[in-house]
## 1
Amino acid sequence: KNSSFSYNGMNGLDITSKGYITLVDVQGYHNYGSYGARISNSTGTGNVSVTCSGPAYCNFTANTLMGLRIYAAGMITLKNVDASGNPSGAVLWNLNGAGKSVTVTNGNFSDSTSSYGLQITTTGPVILTNVISDGNMGLGTAIDSTSASKAQIVKITNSSFNSNQGGNGLEIYSLGSVTLNGIQANGNASSGAHIDTCVYDGAILACRGSGSVTVVGKENLFNDNGDAGLYMVTRFGATLNNISASNNDTGLMIWHNYTNCSGNISINASSGFTNTISGNNAYGIYIEAYGNITLQ
C-alpha cells in the first residue's frame, strides 16, 4: 500500500503467491527489466486486486516490456489504473479460476509502442467501465472467454478503442452474451469492433456459443476503420441501438446463419437519433440471418 517501484533494472514489482494479493495506491513505472508489476497466484486460490484511491491513477507506464501482468486463480479487479505507453499495456489471465470475473473500472491502456493495449483471457464474466485503449501499435483490447465451462457475459460501458494500428479496436470471443453501451471504436486498422458469440465448432458444424449481442446507449461510433465498423457472428441474434458506422470498408456486417442459430436481428434508433451508415467502400449493411431482420 502507498508504495512506488520505479527506475529499477529488473521488474518494478514481482509477486508470486498462493493467496490473495491486494495492491492499493501502488505505482510501477519506468522499469528497465520487463514489467511495471508482474503478479501471480494462479496455482493458489485467491483474488487479485489493484486499485488506486483516486482521482489520480496508479501509474504503470513506460516500462520496457509491459505495464501490468496478472495471472490469477480467482477474480481480477482493477480500478483507476494507467498502463499506457509501454510496449504492451496489460495482460489479465485467470483461466484456472473457473467462472471468476475480470472487472476493470477507469483504466487507460493506450499508446503501446509494439503490441496490444489490453488482453483478457478468462473463464468468467468480463465487465469494463470507462476504459481507454487508443493508439496502440497492435490491437486495442482483446477478450477471450471461450474456455469457460458455461457461457459468461461480457459488458463494456463508456469506453473507447480508437486509432489502433495493428488490428481491431475491440475484439471479443465469448460463449455468452455481449453488451456494449456508449462505445467508440474509430480509425482502427481492421474492424472497429469484432464480436463473436457463436464460436463456430467444426466438429458439430454449428455454434458452440449461446450468446446474443446488444448495443445500447445514447451513441455508439464505429467509423473510419480499415475493415468493418462493427462485425459480428452471433448465435442468438442482435439488438443494435444508436449506431454510426460510416467511412469503413463495410459499415455493419452480421452473420447469424449457422444451423443452431435462433433469435432476430433488430437495428433501432432512439427518438431524435438517426442511425448513420454511409460512405463505406463496400456494403453499408450486410446481414445473413436465420431470424427476422428489422430496421427502424
## 2
Amino acid sequence: VSPGDHSLAVHACHSPMREAQVLKDLILDAFNRNPGLYPHDVVVMMPDIEAYAPFLEAVFSQSPELPFTVSDRRRRSESLTLSAFLNILEMKETRLEKSKIMGLLSCPVIADKFGLTMGDQELVSALFDAAGILWGKDGAHRQKILGQPYEHNSWAFGLNRLMAGFALPEASTVFVNDVLPCDGIEGLEGEVLGKCVHFIQSLFKALELMDSPGTVREWATRFRTIIADMLAKDLGNDGDMAVLLNALDDMEKQAGQAGFERQITFSAVRLALADKLDVQVSQGSFLSGGITFC
C-alpha cells in the first residue's frame, strides 16, 4: 500500500463503544472530504452484528445524526413480542423477584394484554412496595428454593394484603385470616390493583404449565396457551405472532416426522425453541436508504 493510500486502515480501540465512535468520525470525515458521497453509499460489515448493534444504535443516534439501519439481526432481537415471550419462559428459573416481575410488566405487549399502561408502572411498583412484596410465589415456592415454607413478603402474602386493604375500610387494623390489610387503596388504585392481580395470576398459571415434562406436542399446546393468556395481539405485531406460532408448529411437525414421542423437560424444550427463533433473521432493512450495518 502506497503512503498516500488510506483505503486500508487499522484502528486499535479499547471497546465496542469506542469502535463505533471512531467509525462514526471516519464516516463523517469521508463525507466532508467527498461531497458526492451519501449515507446510502456506505455499507459497514462485521462478523457479529448482535454484539455491535446496541453500540451502533447509541452512537449513530446522537448528534450529528446519520441515517442508518441495522440489518441481518435475529428477529427476536428486534421483536418486542418474541422477547416478551422468551422473558416469560425465563421467569421459571428465577426466584420471582419483584424487580423481574416489574421488568415483565414493562413489556408493552404484556402490559397491553392486561389493560395497563406505561404510566401505571410507578403506581404498580408503589402498591407492591406497600404490601412488602420481595420475592417468591408463596411458601411452597420458598420451600423448594430454601427449604423453609415461610410466606412473609412473598407474592401470595402481598397480594392478600392488597386485596384485603381494598375490601376493608381505610385505616382498618382488623386481621383477615392472619393478614394485615394494606391501607388506603381506593378509586383508580383499586382498578389498577385488579389488573395487576390478573397479570400475576396469569403469570403463575403459565409457570405451572412448565412444571412437568411433556412431549413436544404437549409443550407446543402449553406454549400456545401462554401466548393467548399473556401477550396482546394487534395489527402491529401480527408478523411476530406468526413467527412465534409457526416456530411451535414447525417444532411439533418435526417431532412427528421423526416419530419422537418421548417426554422432555422444560429446560430442553425452551432451549430448542429459543434456537429456532434465533434462526429467524430479519433482513428487511438492508440497503434501505441510510448507512447499512450488517
## 3
Amino acid sequence: VQDTVLTWGGFDHTLGIRALGVKLIRKNGATLAFIPQISVHFSAKALLHGRLAPTSLEVIGGKAHIVRNEDGHFDIGLVDQGGSSSPDLVDLVVDDLARTDDSGVSAYLTHVALTDAELTVVDRKSGAIWQVPRATVVLSREAGGVRADASLNVRLGDRLARLTAAGDYVLAQKAAHLHITFVNLEPALFADVAPVFAELKAVRLPLSGTVGFAVAADGHVGNIDFNLTGGIGTLDLRPRVDMPPLDFHGLAASGHVADDFAGVTLDRLTFDLGDARGEAHGRIDLPSGGVGL
C-alpha cells in the first residue's frame, strides 16, 4: 500500500479506509492484483465485538478482463501491473456475497463496486473483443444470490455506446438473468467487431430499448427477449434480397429468440416507411439454408 486515509462521515456513517496503490500478494509472493485506489467501510457492530469486518468494498480505476471461453464458461479477473489477469479475487468476492450463512467476517459484506474501471471483454466463441474504456459495476448481496448493476461505455469503431445493465445471479441455479438497456444504438456499428456480426451492417438505423437473456451454469445463453423502438434510418438487405434499401421513419418491435437461435418470434412489429405504414406479427425462421418468414 502506497498511502492510506482514514475516513468517517459522522454518526450516520461507518468507519472507512481509502488506500492508494494497493498490491494484493499471494502467500507464495506472486501478485494477485494491483488496484490504483480502494475504499473499504467497516461494520460498527462488528467493531463493538472486536472484529474488523468490511460492509462495502469499492475498487476505483482498476482494469479487468472478462473472457468467455469456447465451452461457454466465464473467467473474470483484475489485471496486475504486468498485464496478467487472475480470476481468483473476483471469484472470492462473488462467493462471499453469495454465501447464505451468517458466520465469519464475510457475512457483513453487502456491496462491492468497480468504479471508473477499464474492461476488456473477450468472447472466444464468437471471436469478438470488446473494449470498455469506462465502466461502473456494483454487486449487492440479496436473498438467494447476488444482484449486479452496471453502466458501460463500449467502444464501437470511433464511437462510444452507452449501455446500462441489471441482473441477478441465482445461487441455487448457478445462473444469471440479465437485462441490457440502450439508447440510439446503431446495429451496423457491430459489423466490424467480429465476423459473426457482419450481417448487422444492413441495419443502419438507431435503436433504443431493452434486451433480456439468461446465462446458465454452462455458459449457455437462452430466454432472449427484446423490446425495441427505431428512429430514422435504412435497412439494406442486398445482395441477399434483390430490392432497394428500405427507408424507415419509425419502427417498434417486441418478441423473443429461440434458445437454439433457429428463429425469432415477433409478438408485435409496427413500421413507418414514410409513404406506407404497417404492422405484423409472426415468426422468422433462421435455418442454415436461408431465411423463412
## 4
Amino acid sequence: PELLFYPRPFWLRFKVLNDEEKPVSFLLELDKHLFEYVNIYVPGKDGYQVKRETFTTPLDQREIQHKHFVHRLFANPGETTFYAFVDSWNKQSKESVPLRIWSENNFVRQSSDDGILTGIVVGLFLFVFLYNIFIYFSVRDLSYIFLSVVTLCQLTLEISSSGIGFKYLWPDVPLLTWPMLYINTSLVMGFNLLFYRSFIGIYRYTPKLDKLILFVSWLFFGLALAIFILPRSLFPGMLWFVFSADHFYTLLVLVPTILALKNKNRSGIFALIAIIFYYLGLIKFGLTDTELIQY
C-alpha cells in the first residue's frame, strides 16, 4: 500500500494472513531510498522484538544488502500483526510510504529486472554524453560541452537518488548521498543555464537578462562549493534552497526562448521543448505524493 502521513514520524500496523499450516517467510521492502530509519516490531514468544535499520547503516551491515530497507519476516499460521515506526528526512511535507511484500523468488527476479533497467538508463546517459562530445568536435559549439557536463551531473543525480550510488559506489558511507544530491543539483542548474545562454545566444536578444543568467549560473557553482566551506549546520537550509530553485530556475530562459522563436531561431524551438518536458517531469514527480500517480 502507499500511505500518506503528515507530520512524521509515524506508526504503521499491518496484518498478514497465513493460510498454510506452517510458518512462511516473506520480505518487506520500504520502496524508497531516502527514509531516515525504520523499526519493524515482530511478534515473538516474549513479546515484540525490534528490527531496526537506519539510513546511515552501511550496506554490509544490513539484513538484506539492498539499496532500500528490506527485512525478512515470518508469519505463523493464522493472522500475524506487525508494527512499523518510520521516519523521513523530509519533515515539512506529505510523503508516501510505499511498502511492498515479496516472496524471496519474486524479490530476486524484481531486483534483477531493476538492475537491467538501471543499466539501460546509465547507458543512455553515457550515449548522450559521448554524442554531445562528438557534436562539439564536429561543430565547435561550446554549448555542447555544457550539455555534456549537464548529462554527467544528471547521471550522478540519478544514481544518487535511486540508491544505486549507495549500493555500488559508496556502500560504507551512506550519508554521502545527500552531498552528492546537493552538489550535482547545483551543478546541473549552473551548467544548464550556461547551455541555454550559449545555445540560444541570449545576449543577442536580452543583454541584461544574459548578464543575470550568467550571474545566477555562477551563484549555483558557488553554492556547490559552499558545502566544503560553510558549517554543516547550514546544510539543511542550503539543501532546501537548492531543491526549491530547481523548480523555477529555467524560467529565466523562457523570455529569451520566446524572443528567439519570434526571430525564427530554431534553437528556440528545441529550448522550448526541453523546458516543457522538464516541467512535465516535475509535475509527474509532484503527483507521486498524491493518490493520482503511484510512486
